[in-house]
Amino acid sequence: MSSTAERPQSLAERIYARLKDDIFEFRLMPGDRFSEGEVAARMAASRTPVRQALHRLQRDGYLDVHFRSGWQVRALDFAQFDELYELRIVLELEAVRRICQRPTDEQPTALQALARTWLVQEQQRLQDGAVVAQLDEAFHCQLLEAAGNQEMARVHREVSEKIRILRRLDFTQAPRIDLTYAEHGQILQAILTRRSEEAQQLLKSHIEVSQAQVHSITLHRLYGARQRVEPTKP
Q1: Residue among 83, 52, 55, 63 at smallest CA distance from 22
Q2: Residue 123 sits in which domain range?
Q3: Is the confidence at residue 7, as pLDDT, over 80?
Q4: Which residues contact 3 (CB under 8 A, 6 or more apart)?
Q5: Radius of gyration over alpha carbons of the chain, in Å?
Q6: H or E element that contains 73
Q7: What is the three-class DSSP state of 125?
Q8: With pLDDT > 70 as the criterion, what percentage of the chain qualifies?
Q9: Does residue 100 sit in the same domain as residue 201?
Q10: 218 pLDDT band (50/70/90 cuts)?
Q11: CA 84, CA 90: separation in Å to the nearest integer?
Q12: How many Å apart are CA 220 and CA 18, to the nearest integer?
């Protein structure tokens, strides 16, 4: 369906998703500026759905708008990221505690799927950082799904999306990929055998290492990540 035939709301949704993906994939960097007109031209759309998408991204915390100078990708707020990581730890440790309260013969489907992904031989491990980053996010989200509290899972998904850009940067380094496989495997083994305290400690340490990596992210690394994708301007 062409953009001229699309309903304004669905067109705004598509523009929103496209721009958010540009931010997550480093085609748009923190500090980058652009105008509504530039986005409209690239998307072959009128300004109304573009404006709707941009204001939604602003509400979600991805963009700022400046009088006369247009739109700007919001700078990384590391204090906010620390708070989100703290919330993530609380949610995931509680999820593991709830899972481990169940009998060992009751293995949620989500856990079985995770075991097939992460409990594999070294030669079967994926090495594509972008793919492993998506699997890593799914691993932690599925732990919340397995815990059975849908509201906890919903909040966790929102937190995961807000820190996604940093987690993807973490997987631009090959050693982090191998370490993630090893640590996820250890966490899963402890959960599957209902070693609750051990599983929670392993999980907490795993997340804290990832959180520490966040503080090593520099503009140099951000721009290095952008060089690995096709540069795109609005």
Answers
A1: 63
A2: 78-216
A3: no
A4: 11, 43, 44, 45
A5: 20
A6: strand 70-73
A7: coil
A8: 89
A9: yes
A10: low
A11: 10
A12: 24
Q: Which residues are bridge partners to 63 per DSSP?
A: 73
Rounded CA-CA distance 151/169 in Å is 28
Whether residues 42 and 69 share a domain: the answer is: yes
Residue of 213, 207, 84 lying closest to 139 (CA atoms): 207
Q: Do 93 and 204 contact (CB within 8 A), yes or no?
A: yes
Cα–Cα distance measured from residue 45 to residue 192, given in angstroms and rounded to the nearest whole number: 51
Distance (Å, whole) CA 69 – CA 33: 8
Tally of CB atoms within 10 A around 218: 9
CATH number where 105 lies: 1.20.120.530
Question: Which residues, 6+ apart, have CB-to-CB distance to 154 below 8 Å?
Answer: none
Give residue-wise pLDDT tens across range 175-207: 888 999 999 999 999 999 999 999 999 999 999
Q: How confident is the model at residue 228 (pLDDT cuts 50, 70, 90)?
A: low
Residue position matching structure tokens 């999980």: 203
Reported confidence tier of residue 98, pLDDT bands at 50, 70, 90: very high
pTM reported for the whole predicted model: 0.83
Mean pLDDT of 64-84: 91
